[in-house]
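Record now logged underneath.
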Amino acid sequence: MIRKIIIVIAVVAVAGLGVFYYLNKGSTAPSVANTGSFGNNTSTAVDNNSDATTTEIAIPTQPAFVPSSGQPFPRLYELHREPTAGVAFVESGSGKKYVASARYIERGVGNIFDTDLSTYVESRVVNETRSRLSEALWGQNGKSVVVRSLVGSTIKTSILNLSNPTKLLAPDGTKNFMKVEEISLPDSIPFMATAEDGTNKLFYLKNNKDGAQGTTITYKNTSATKIFTSLFTEWLPQFPNQNTVALTTKASANIPGGLFFLDTRTRSFNKIIGSINGLTTLVSPDNKRVLYSETKDGSPQLSVYNIATKEKRDLSIQTLAEKCVWGRKQTTVVYCAVPKTIPAGAYPDAWYQGIVSLADSIWKIDTQNTDTEELTSSTDLNGVNLDMTNLSLNSNDSYLLFTNKITGTPWVFRVSK
């Protein structure tokens, strides 16, 4: 039995190397054909192991939208032309006073920008740079962000807490930028997750000679509590709400995977689903459903599992669960990036390792009655290939943010026409 576990760990570990390699590599996007209003522009690829920029590569993007030009606002819009490490919503007000912005941090250099989603006007909000930045995990309505970088062979992790300036203008009349408080976390944290319910909790895993150890902390790095230990080290965490950490074994096409729930209060550890090849998961915020994909006939097949009734339902959609997001207003609905075609390959391994790129459209799927609707049209996409990842929705499900894995740039899609 022990020998079998060791073999599984070794195989899954090799397959999982592609995940971290992607998170920490520079952008090396190939050229993508484009037509219409999308023009060819030049972006700079950043080597995350160097403070200097390297090669110039052509990345097709659309021209900056000018709100006063009289053109209709595009439903699908590229927010920034440089690769970013992470993007999130910043929301305030309600009803007619509701305001939503997208906040993102550039990969490699760490500049932080906001784009007002009602005007598509971009502004820089933090006047600082951070080299080698590879990954960013946002929380607390855009007020905090976990930034991660690879320095040599060491993963460096810090928390940045942002606060508005006391005065909007400096004495010389120039703009005052947001203040940044930086808090360092331990080195070599392989995986972590931020609480998706907006609370100030983080969960991270750290491996040692005895296995994996899981800890919860706040964005101020207080109330550190060790809540999990495991001899198995290849876990991918989700933090759907402050009471539950979902741990999925690293996925590989020919390896059976499982999903477990860790109760942050009682520290109980329970198996939810298992023995599924190529398992990737997305847990609903209320812990009632699990969207998951499994490898069948060489492709990722999407299903939903009802935790209370233990009922599985095939959604007849070919995509990975991590290319989806649960609705926040409509809690039984998911929005997914669905490839138009699935290139031959072992999934999810080939996608993690960057062997294949996908050309997605956005679909709305009701997991209760399996109704599906394709939301993006050929006019929206306008000839641009989008391999969508890290999808997120605002509080009323009106905007969808994602990153194009091909270019590393952030995009927004207006859900309602």
